[in-house]
Structure formats: C-alpha cells, structure tokens
Task: structure prediction
Amino acid sequence: MLKKNILYFFCFITIFSLSFSENLIPSSDLISGKLDNGLKYYILKNKKPEQRASLNLIVSRGSLAENDTQQGLAHFLEHMAFNGTKKYKKNELVKYLQSLGLKFGGDLNAYTSFNETVYELKVPSSIPDLKIALDVLKEWSANITLNQKDINDEKNIILEEWRLRQGIAKRIGDIQQKILFGDSFYSKRFPIGKTKIIETATKENLEKFYLKNYQPKNMAIVIVGDFNPHEIIPFIKKTFKTLENTDNLSKKNYQIPTASKNSITVFTDPEITKTKLDITWKYKTSPVNSIENYKKLIVTNLLDSIINSRLNNISLNKDSPFIYSSMYNFNLNTNTGVHGVSALIKNNNTLNTTKIIFENLKDISLNGIHSSELNGEIKNEINNAKFAYNNRDSISNSTYLNSIRDQILENNTFLTIKDDYKISSKILKSITDIDIKNEAKNIINRNYDILITSPENNASLPNKKEIENTISQVLADNSIKININSKTNALKNLNLSKGNIISETHYKDYSKFILSNGLQVLYKKTAFDKDKIFIDLTKYQGSSNYNFNTYINSLFLTNIVSNSGVSNIGYKNLNSYFKGKNFSVTPFISDYSQGFTITSDKENLSEALNYFENSIYKQNFSNEILNSTLENYKELIKNQNNSPMYNFKETYLTSLNSNNPRRKSLTLKDLSLVSLNNIKNIYDNMINFNNYKISIVGSLNEEDVKTILENNFANLPTKNNDFSLKNLNIQYPKNIIKKEIIQGIDKKSTVIITLPYHGKVTKENTVLYKATANVLNTLLLENIREKNGEVYSISTFANIDKLNYGENYLQIYFSTNPKNIKTTIKEVFKTINSLQKGKFKNEKIKDIKENYRLNFETALKTNDLWLNYLNKKNLISDYEFYSPMLYNNIVDYKSIVNFSQKSIDKKNYVEVILLPKKEG
Result:
C-alpha cells in the first residue's frame, strides 16, 4: 500500500544496493485485468472487516471533461445515478442501499472531482451479495435513468449543496483556489459547477455528457474484501463485457503552472476570528512509481517532520508568535505538487512568524540538520512502520481502496504493507542529511505564494512590502545558524514495590481481577490487531463535585499535564523523547468521569507503564506551558463574536441548558480563574485511585496481564476522600423556546431543533430511542431532501446514556434557503407526527434492523467495542450490549411508534435559527 502522505520506514540488517531508476512493481496480491472493451478491474483479498467487501466504480472523467455549457453536469450526473436505472427503479435502489445500512443520494455513496467520478458500495462478501453489487455498479456505468421530473427535483438538492458550502470558509477557499490553480483549466471547472447551468439542466445535455464520458475504456472496477478473488473475476467479465465504447476521444491532460513570481494576498472579513498565515510553493512532481520518486517523497516528508518538530517546540513558549504552525505537502494533480506551511498567528506577530519559518528553511539549506533530528525522525518512522507491519492483517478495506485508486488515477504504484516493508528499508538506508539540505534549498529557491487572512479592520497587519523585505533579508543572510536542543534523556525507572492479585473470576467474554489495593480489573484478550494494547483507568466522579472556579481549571488539566513532561523529561525535550516510541499516556476529566488512557504496542508497553508511574509520582507542572496555553486561548477567544456560527452555537447552548455556566463557551474572564496550583490540586485528587476501575483490551496474554497488574497497578495509592459524584442537575426547558440569530451575509440558514427526553434511561429505552432516531432520520431525508429538495443533508441524533444524568435529547440539524425556513421546519414536525402515527412503511424497521446487524457484526471484531463494553461494565454492573437477536426482540413497528409517542414531545423543544442579514 503506497500512500503519498504516509510514510512507512523499515529497518533491515541485510545491505541492499539501490537502483534508483528501478520501477516499482505493483504488489502481486493485487489481481488486475482488462476486458476487451477496455474496462479494467482490480481485486484484492483483505480480511478486515470480516465477511465484508468494498467496491468502487471509478470513471476517469470528472469536471475537467465538461465544456463551457456543461459546468456542474459531471456532479449532477453522479446525483442522478441514485434516482434509478433501467433495471433498478429509484425505490428499489433506495431499498437496496438502505438494507446495507447505507444512506442514499448523490455524494453519500459517491463523489465527483476534477479527474474522476467514483461510486462506492460496502456489502457482505458472499457471492450473491457481490453479484448484486456488481450489477448495480454496471447499471450506474451505462443505464442511469435520466427522467426530466427526477432531474428537476434533483436540481433543488444540488443547489442546496451549493448553498451549504457558502460562508467564510468558502470565501477564503475561493482565494486559496485562485492561488493554487491560477488561470489553469482547473480554475474554470470546479465540480459543483455553475448555478445557472444546474438550474437549466435537461435530460438531453446530461445524456450527452453521460454517453460521451461513461465509456468502458474510461472505467475501472475495484473490489477489496474478505473473499476468494478468483471466484469474482468471472462475474466481473460476465457483468461488464457487454458495455461498448462509442467515442474514441482520449482524455486531455491539463497542466497547473507553478508560480512565475512571488505573490502576497491579504484578505480580511468581518466574520474571520483569527489571523492565519499560509505560505505555499508549487513545484513539478511525478507519480510515485519508481524507487527514485519514492525516495523524493520520503525526503519531502522527512523535511516536513523535522520542520514541524522545530515549530512545535517554539509554539510551547509563552512568547511564541504563533499558536501552531505546520508544514505539509500534497499533489494538485499528477505533475504539480504543493509544499506549504500554515500558522495561526498570536498577538499580530505575522512578520515574526514568517521570519521564523523562512529562517528554519534557510538554516537547513545552509547547515543541514543535526544528526539527532534525522535519526529521531527515522527512528519515529521505523517504529510507525513496525507497528503498521505487525498489524497488517487489520488494515481496513477503505485504506487499500484509496491506494488502488491512486494507482488508477495518479499512476502511483500500489504496494501492500508487506511489500512496502521491503522496499522502504532500502530507500531509508540511502537517505542522508544532504538529501534533506537539498530539499530545503529547493523550497526556498521556488517562488512563493502567501495568503494572510484576518479579521476586518486589523490595523496591525504588515503590508506586502514589509513581508517581502523580511523574507528577502532572511534568504540573503548566509550566516543563519539555529541551535537545536538535541538532548534526549532516558526516563528514570522508579522501581516501585509490587502489589498482588487477591481474586480472579473468568466469564465468557472477559476475566475479572481484584487487586490488593481494592481496584477491579476487567480484561479481554483480542486478536483483531496483532500488536495493540489499550488500558483505561476510570473513576465515576469527574469535576461534578467542584465549584465553578475549579471546574474551569479542570478544563485545562489534560493539556497542561500532557505537555509538561514527567520526572527528568521536561517540556522542552518531551517531543524528542517520544520520537520512536509508540505509546501514549493521557489523563482526562469530564463532568462525571476521570482517569487515564494508556495505548501501546508490546515493544513499548514497559516504557508506557514506566511513564504512567512517573506521571503519578513525578509529574511536572510547567508554568511556561500554562502561560502559553492561556495566551493561545486569549487569541482564540478575543474575536469569536465575529463568527455567526459561534453566536448561533452559544445561543443554542444557553437556551437548551437554561443558561447554566458549565454549558457555555470559555470567556476571557474564565481564563483569569486558571492557576497552576488549582490544576495541581485537581491532579492530586485524580491520582488517588480509590474506586478506580481498570479495563484492559488487546494482544496481551493473561500471564503477562497478571504480571503487569502486580507490578504497575496493584501498588497504586488508594485512600478515602470526601469527593464523590454529584448530579449537576442541568435543567432542560419544559416548554417551547425559539431563538433567532441574524448575522452574516450568506444566503443560507442553519437550524437546530432539540427535543429533550424526560423518560427513564433503561437498556430497552436506550435501544428504542436510538432506533427511533434512525427511522426519523430516514423519513426526514425522504421527505425533506428527496421529495421537497429543501436541504442537501439533514441529521438526526439521539443522545442518551445512564451517565448523562438527565442530559438526554433528540437533535435535528440542517441548513436551507432562508426563504424555505418556515416550510422546512413545518415539514420536520409533520414528519415527526407521521412517525408517531405510524404513517410509514414497515420496511424502514427492517432496514434499521439489518443495518444494526451489519454494524454489530463488524464492531464485534474491534478493540473499540470491547474497550467501551468493559468500561461501561466496570461502571454499570448490569450493562450489556444488545446483540442483533435482542435488538430484534425489542425493535419493531409497534414499539417504535409507541416509543416515539412517549419520548418525543412536540410541545417541548428548543429551536435556534441562524439567518443572514437582509440585503440593503
């Protein structure tokens, strides 16, 4: 598997000779072929998820294939595929997709880009299911029904998709696209198209585009999953061999020029809340299909990692000119790449940030890098690679699909993790600091494009001449030399005394241990990932018993503790310490729970546990980290009222939560309450492990677990204290509350409707509430999106849990045309009413049951499900997850109708609407 922005480095003892002109050969595990009509197919057997397959129909034509009168039709046609085909009428197609647990509609199982249109299906991997899936892909490839009524209906949905994208992000994005694409053909063919062309689309012009571009020679079928590939090939041939080419035109390859001169763009807007700096350099690149090109990619990514480590260390200081800064690279197309740096500016330090970025690149171009920097990054990637290789059997279908797509569309060579392991090791041994030095030279010798975005009326922004002079001075200074702190300490081992296990009980799905300090441990060995270990220590308490002052301090605990280091590892060398170590130890505290999460592989588990012990007995608390964090928050908060979405969210939170201060966003006044002593006191309470519960999931044998429990957990300090969980008693309204926020210039409205749940939280009610939300979401999509075309998307979410202490609700969220706001909201409640009166087909219940079964079977083979299960079991003794059989016993047509009547009160809801200012 070869992914352009993900590196896998590997360490071999054998010495290889390198031939950089050598082409990369696709992994032999990938079976490919070509039919007589030119259609290509790619098949890969993959075990995860079990008994599942993912399929793609890739049409190598997108918006670049449109003429001036067709702008938006490639994307429109993708939408029309879900309105039915000659063989599958719309209702049949929708029923099929929903039975698989998939949402239906254009863009939900497909996408359109400049160079391709891709249709996606995820199905069970049985032969009958794969046959049907292939038949659906074939219908999309040649037999989409273009009915004018359906076309007219779909226009509204696509226009709502266009509307949904409007906003400050779109305004900034338009400028970024102009910088990246210049005057190239790409800049004239954004996939969403022109609204006038969408509004006037006809069967004839869609059909013309369809017949011309959906040729079998322009298509590929990709299937990845848990099946025998050789059984699939005959079905592909039989299904697609009848397709014929009717057009001999070849695909045009459009170029994107690199920058012919330096450019600086400054954009201000009344809705922008922060100043951001983006520097990009465009350059010519080549597909990753040879050893030489793969090495270039590795060198590029190594430089990014080295720069990012430097910038991260600077950002930790209180006086840092930026909150964060990150270097990255990506490809615009097969022959044009982009190197870039983004930075979120603090205290208007745009010039200083620009100077630091260019100084670091100039320093590397002159002096190379410290050996510890290169060795640290290589060590880090080796460790990541080893982790990926050890867990190669749990790579998901989607990961491989994306890599095969890259081979088809971008001419990259597909490699599995196994093959990548061998090849990367050769390349790694050849990389030196000279390669990194030369790459830095390449960057600073290119023309740059700079974009600065900032709140309106920011008088502190530098002008273009000041920026140009700052950069010129840095690039002309050949005496620059940056001293890098290369010191890396080994973490001291505390050698604590052991505890012991006083009892153990074995159940069907897990084992329970009681430790000598009273802690309860639930453990389950899994083999889903060969080398992943998860340990959660959780206490049912959190910040609920704290006053407001202490609660505010608790919000900063994770950040301060995680970035301050432990023992002899201070915040300045924490980043270098973690290079090459694949583990994390993270404290957390919320309203009702607190604890630590430890993740690791087997090789690093001992060090992870050593770090955890040091965090208990030798935790550092850095004033510099605290001050830096507070300065960052001040920058983020000070202009937040500029944002319509911020004010919309804040109005919603205060309305729903009866103005409770714990459910509001942070203010500058809140920051004044934070101190290091307060955070230390909270942490001191957290590391009293009385009443903590431990959950362990992963690839650890029971004997190893017992040793760890005795050495690292049975000796944790436990003592009685006065803290206990307290119900915050957040009160939801008992009536109807409606609020409107009028702000912004974009012609769209955003709506959130929340209906509080006041019933009992039992296992059965939890299942029924979530099932009711799923049925309602399907009905809303059908009525408001598909029938009325008033929204592009609408989401329904049920929040319910015993640990929520009454903060349970049903939430409906959507955006639409301001002119449609009243009718759309009316339709929402009309749909709720239909649900409560049982005016829907029983098929909806069958679909959510099948969806639940498919999702459950997949989740059952994941560590996430079992870790969540053990955590809940530890805190709620009678907790059980619902198997599909139990689910089916509870969820039926009658139970959903009855429960919706009891749980959804149409006379008790909070409705908040964001509306734009009226023109004029």
Confidence is low (pLDDT under 50) at residues 1-18.
